[in-house]
Every structure is written in C-alpha cells, then in structure tokens.
Design a protein that fits this description.
With 145 residues, the chain is an all-alpha fold. The chain has two domains: 50 residues; 67 residues, Arc Repressor Mutant, subunit A, CATH 1.10.10. The chain has six helices and two strands. The protein has a two-stranded antiparallel ribbon with strand order 1-2. Strand 1 and strand 2 form a beta hairpin. The protein is elongated.
C-alpha cells in the first residue's frame, strides 16, 4: 500500500513541476508575441490549465447539443415497408429495399450502415408487434391483406 501512495506522491510532484514549466513557456510565448506586435489576446495560451472537472462538463454540454439522427420520420418506415413488401420478404431484403428507397444504398460508411440496419430491424419488430406486418414461421415478413 505504501508503494501506491509513494507513486501517487511522485506523480503529483511531477504534475506540479510540469505545470510550472508550462506556465514559464506560456510567459515566454506572451513575451515573444508582445515583441512581435501581434495581438496578445488572439494568440495567447491560457494562463493555467483547465481544471479536471471542466472535461465532464464539456462532454455534457456537447451531449446536450448533439442532434439525434433519425433515419425515418414518424410512420415513414411503415409506409415505405407497406409499399415495398409485395410478397413475403426476409428482413435483410427489407433492409436493402428501404436503403434503395431512401437513397442510402452504397453511400453509407460501415458504422452508419450498421445503424441504419438496426433502425430498420427495430421498425420491423415494432410493426410486427403492432400487427402492421405479419411475421411468418420461416422468418419472412409480409403486409397482412
């Protein structure tokens, strides 16, 4: 246990030494910028490093501002599936048909394609649960007539 506390003390001492060194470098940069006549405010580095608690706050702010990507408007997926499913189709075929209909076929990155696939699979499951689509024993889905 004492080795851990010694390591922590050593790391804290190293951190303060690095902070002092960074402050000296920032002071030199400000002096050079002032000597060159550049605007000190635009190019000056921060006087002290940001506190450790600022990082989680920035993440929370970014998460609040992040826009949720919706692949389909409300009811759009079901409407498209009703148009595209003429005979019983496997869910993979439905995914490909919807991608073609929306213009995403071959244009999405792998991660985006995976997200789109899961959105379609979720829409299929919701439509089957609400009895808007009929799931057959072989796994294919169709529109009930």
């Amino acid at each position: 246990m004492s080795s851990v506390t010694d390591a922590v003390r050593e790391l804290e001492a190293r951190r303060t030494a690095l902070e002092n060194e960074l402050a000296k470098i920032n002071a030199r940069l400000r002096a050079v910028a002032a000597a060159l006549g550049a605007s000190g405010e635009a190019r000056a580095a921060p006087e002290s490093p940001a506190p450790a608690a600022a990082a989680p706050q920035a993440v929370r702010r970014a998460a609040k501002k992040a826009k949720v990507h919706r692949w389909f408007e409300t009811g759009e997926a079901l409407a498209l599936m009703r148009k595209l499913i003429k005979k019983p189709m496997r869910p993979v075929e439905v995914i490909h048909a919807l991608a073609e209909a929306k213009g995403y076929a071959g244009k999405l990155a792998k991660s985006e394609q995976d997200r789109f696939n899961w959105a379609v699979i979720s829409a299929i499951k919701a439509a089957v649960q609400s009895k808007q689509l009929l799931k057959h024993k072989d796994g294919k889905v169709s529109v009930p007539r």
